[in-house]
Amino acid sequence: MRIKLDNVSKSYISGKKSIKAIDNVSIEFDRGLHVITGGNASGKSTLIRLIAGISRPDHGVISVGKYRLNIDCNNECLSMLRREYIGFMPQTLMVPKSMEAEKACGLPLILKNVNGWREVVHMYFEEFGLKDCMGRKGGELSVGQRQRIAFIRSIIFNPPILLLDEPFSHQDEDSVRKIVEFLNSISNDKIIILATPDLTLLKVYRLKIDRIISLFRGRIRSITD
Amino acid sequence: MITSIFKEIFLETKRVFIKTLIYLFIIFFLLVGSTQFAWTSNYYYVYYPYEKMDYYYAIELEYGKKNFNEVIKISKSMVEELVLENSVIIVTIPYPYSLQVEHYKVVNPTIAIVYRYEDISLLGVDIRLDNEEPILVFTESLSNDGAPPEILGKIKEVSLIINDINISISMNVYIHSQPLFEPKGLLIIKYGSKEYLDIISSVDFYMSQILIKDDSGSLGEIIRNKVVNEYGLNMSVYYKPDVLEVMESWSPSISNLLSYSFMSYWIGVILGSIILIRNSFLFVDLSKEVVGLYLIYGVPLKRVIMSFIILLLILSSMSIFLSTVSVYFVFTYIDLIKQPPLDIFLTISSSTIFLTIIIMTVLSIAFIKYRFSSTELEDYVSTGVA
Predict the structure, then answer these.
(1) In this complex, is the C-beta atom of A45 within 8 Å of any C-beta atom belonging to chain B?
(2) Range from A163-167, B40-44, B186-190, B214-218 that averages highest in pLDDT
(3) Mean pLDDT of B88-105
(4) What is the pLDDT of residues B113-144, one digit of tens each?
(5) Which residues of A touch B377 (CB under 8 A)?
(6) In CATH, what class is A3-224?
(7) Neighbours of B170 (CB within 10 A)
(8) Which of A119, B81, B234, B363 shows its CA 20 to 30 Å from the CA of B277?
């Protein structure tokens, strides 16, 4: 499976202004760990959302495998992709306050009618130090815990593509280390795209990075292998 | 390797088996509970002293679509034909119809008309011979506290021997739905008299009931053939003593409400709820945050709707049932209505449940669809707020 962006642009309206979040970007992603970096409002999250099929581009084509997201896919098709192929961890959406932690985490498995989804969730909870969160609701958890739950949700169904938007922003050292270890162990088999403003952290924790894509004002500034 | 495969197979089989067993239990409890619940609620009002008789036939003539006089005529001729020695026939006549003695001229030789008001107090007894003046008439209105002893004394033993048929009336009058009659003869019972119609107008009966004691146990079929084939009426016959015991047990009381049928119904509901909450009951949260998450993973709308309907079903049946029973007991114990018929309450209750479910389902579907269509996924993911 391969991800391909071909002359993709995306603008947002802010007040009366139109802001170009992604400006004519063309890039391909194969297996490996790709880090998208850049300053604030450089377009990292927008790029992740475009590949996840959450946002639709104004121009260009985004392909995930055989699917041209903005041409062939309706909302149902996009949901199916996120359910089957794309593990997506957004920056803001983590665990709803009213939702039980296990359920929020195991949602992709529940929808696949996986028997014993709770046990699988518990296994991951233990691995990522979330044992205390069992049986609790989103509102009762810390931001860091919720972020880790969102991370587990994105990997729990073993998708071939993983889109992670700033997964370390609220994590303590131990959690960062665990997530990095996990990503290192799977990065050979999957396309992992990770957005982060801070490359230093990744280097400190020795994340095996295959490629660094640096964005500036919605354009690709550099690509480093 | 082989051991682990066998272990897997064993664990999977065990899991499926236990799950199936749990579901079967729930279905069993729900089915048994609800059928008994429905059944008993239909026939609770048979509260005559059956225990004194070996076999009973409770025949309910549905005259709703027939002319009342026609049914009376049929009842009358049945009474004529079927009054056998040692058998008892009680025809209960619903209150809105004022019985005229002449309707029963041919019910030879004796008619006893007992006026009563909701089993609480005996209002009068009027026993006449055909075409003659009443030989015994008690028309005094009695207070709800009970009948004056002298009148009761007179009523208790009324015995007439006419045309070689021994007809005697023996009555015990109690307050609050205790057995009113201990009949050994032919009784035609009229509910209410003119001045009481308003009071009891909230209570309606659509059945004429004929109870027949039959020691031989063979009368039921004869009656059924006659009623159904010859008169073309709808009829239900219940003749097993145990059936009637259950019917009788449905005079309302706390112990009856906690009886097997209710308990099994509620055990089913509770077990079902636990299972649903653990497994299928997953999509009833419709806060904007949650809907956003549903949209990301494409939770099917029908699954959300089903979860909602299940939730509504359980909640509405529980709440409406409990409130109905509460109201019923309040009414009973503060004496607003003397002995309100439980079946009416339960009918209202079940109708309300169905209506509520239908209305709530429609509203829920509309709301769910609105919620799903109005949530902008892009905004939601960008800001975390839909």
Answers:
(1) yes
(2) A163-167
(3) 33
(4) 333 333 333 333 344 433 444 444 433 333 34
(5) 54
(6) alpha beta
(7) 14
(8) B363
DSSP B120-186: TEEEEEEEEETTS-EEEEE-----TT---HHHHHHHH-EEEEETTEEEEE-B---SSSS--B--BSE
pLDDT at A43 over 80: yes
Alpha carbon of A94: minimum distance to chain B alpha carbons (Å):
8
| Distance (Å) from the alpha carbon of B15 to chain A's nearest alpha carbon | 10
**Pair of tokens at residue A3:** 């991800």
Orientation of helix B2-43 relative to helix B260-278, angle to 10°: 140
B211 pLDDT above the threshold of 90: no
Contact A111 B287 (CB under 8 A): no
A30-39, B122-131, B184-193 — most confident range: A30-39
Residues 5-24 of B with CB under 8 A from A: 15
Counting one residue from A and one from B, how many pairs have CB atoms under 8 Å apart?
65
With bands split at pLDDT 50, 70 and 90, how would you rate the model's confidence at A156? very high
Candidates A82, A100, A107, A115, partner chain B, best to mutate (most B CBs within 10 A)? A107
With beta carbons under 8 A apart, name residues in chain B contacting A107: 293, 297, 299
Burial track A161-192 (b if 16+ CB lie within 10 A, e otherwise): bbbbbbbbeebeeebbebbbebbeeebeebbb
All residues of chain A having their beta carbon less than 8 Å from the beta carbon of residue B301 are none
Q: Do A99 and B380 touch (CB under 8 A)?
A: no
Using a pLDDT cut of 90, give the percent of chain B over it: 0
CB proximity A203 to B under 8 Å: no
Alpha carbon distances (Å) from B251 to A118, B51, B144: 47, 15, 19
